[in-house]
Amino acid sequence: MEPKALFDGHPLHKLLPVIAGIALAIAAALDLKTSAQAYDLDSNNCLACHSSPSLSKQNGQGSVSLFVSANELTASAHRYLDCTSCHTDKPHQVQTPLTKQSLAQKCGTCHAYEYKLHLTSIHGQKLSNGNSDVATCTDCHSTDSNPHSVVRVLEPTASTYPKNIAQTCAKCHNNPQLMSKYGIVEKVYESYMRSFHGKAMKLASDKLAVELLNKATCTNCHGTHDIMEVNDPGAPVAGMANLAKTCEQCHPGAGVTFASGFLGHKEANPSFLPPVYWGERFFYIFTRAVLAVGGLMVSFEIGRWGVGHIAARIRRSREQDD
Questions:
Q1: What is d(CA 235, CA 249) in angstroms, rounded to the nearest whole number?
Q2: Of residues 192, 197, 200, 202, the one with CA closest to residue 216
Q3: How many CA atoms lie within 13 A of 54 on its CB side?
Q4: Whole-angstrom Cα distance, residue 229 to residue 121?
Q5: How far is it, in rounded angstroms, from Cα 183 to Cα 186?
Q6: How far does Cα 316 stand from its chain's mean position?
Q7: Can you give the pTM of this predicted structure?
Q8: What φ, ψ does residue 57 adopt, rounded to 5°?
Q9: Which residues of 166-177 are buried (b: 16+ CB within 10 A; e: fewer)?
Q10: Are the C-beta atoms of 187 and 267 separated by less than 8 Å?
Q11: What Cα–Cα distance (Å) separates residue 200 from each residue in 2, 155, 186, 212, 216?
Q12: Are strands 62-65 and 56-59 parallel, antiparallel or unpaired?
């Protein structure tokens, strides 16, 4: 049958419901396939209950959702792990509430090297001492701190992808209340995003961010799982000697003189490096003044040309009338 014959006698408005129905059927089939893939890996049938959005429990802090998205699970980096690879407390008559510390320990059963580094980091040390303010694995590896939505580190949607790292660190380090609690007054995220590195990373494509700008974000200077406190003698940003070595990873031969030009995350102000601050203010105002005067002169020139053009037309019109 020719394609034309198939639609003979069928106005388009009558075919639209059929087309929409076919599209919905395809979408439902794809969703069913995704769910089926998740259920295939769920040998303990956990999703039989946990796929229900309404599943929850009560604890001392209120209602806690027990819902697990089959779609997120199937797309995650852990999609080939069975639930009980992490949730080993089954059957769950025994209550083992998940904490930041127990989560890190659980991740360490597979990621032993990373967990060992984490224990030596400022985050890991504080966490071991019971401080729940610091970051644990899912705070960095998941956009919503959900272990079921962790994706591979070099996926463009990953919170650990080079272009996304600054925003990931900002979840804590751009929180004024949390930072003031620990005496950190520098606006680290804002100062980074105003720097060349931050602007270059923001404007780069995903491919460029990995291939050419992978030395320009938080973790390249501060480390990843082994992040130290900035004043720790072993930290890569502690002291000019260490900072120079860190800069030399991207800027060969940078040296101490080069590194000393970096203000850290402090920004110049009238009381801190006033020459730098007022120099910046001068060029800020001067540049805008030059642009404003230039724009005004162009406007006058356009106006003069317009008036002259109109006057010439009027003059020609009068000459023709005469």
A1: 15
A2: 197
A3: 0
A4: 8
A5: 9
A6: 64
A7: 0.64
A8: -140, 165
A9: bebbbbbbbeee
A10: yes
A11: 55, 20, 21, 10, 8
A12: antiparallel
Burial bucket for residue 107 (CB in 10 Å: 0-12, 13-18, 19+): buried
Alpha-carbon torsion (114, 192, 144, 205), positive or negative: negative
Rounded to whole angstroms, how far apart are CA atoms 4 and 194?
60
Cis peptide before 91 (omega within 30 of 0): yes
Distances in Å between the alpha carbon of 241 and those of 116, 238, 264? Answer: 27, 8, 14
pLDDT tens across the length of the chain (322 residues): 444 444 455 555 566 666 767 776 665 555 544 444 444 455 656 776 777 777 777 777 778 887 888 778 777 877 777 777 777 665 555 455 678 888 888 888 889 999 999 999 999 999 999 898 999 999 999 888 888 888 888 888 889 888 889 999 999 999 989 998 888 877 889 889 988 888 888 887 766 656 655 667 899 899 999 999 988 999 999 989 999 999 998 899 889 999 888 877 888 888 888 898 899 999 999 999 999 999 999 999 999 898 888 888 888 887 777 6
Q: How many CA atoms lie within 13 A of 111 on its CB side?
A: 16
Cβ contact 106:86 at 8 Å: yes
Using CA atoms, how far residue 307 sits from 43, 100, 253, 313, in Å, is 83, 73, 60, 10
C-alpha Rg value of the chain to the nearest Å: 30
Return the domain boundaries, the chain.
Answer: 27-97, 98-146, 268-302
Rounded to whole angstroms, the Cα distance separating 11 from 252 reads 70
Residue 56: both structure tokens together: 């929850």
What the block records as the tokens of 66 is 């027990």
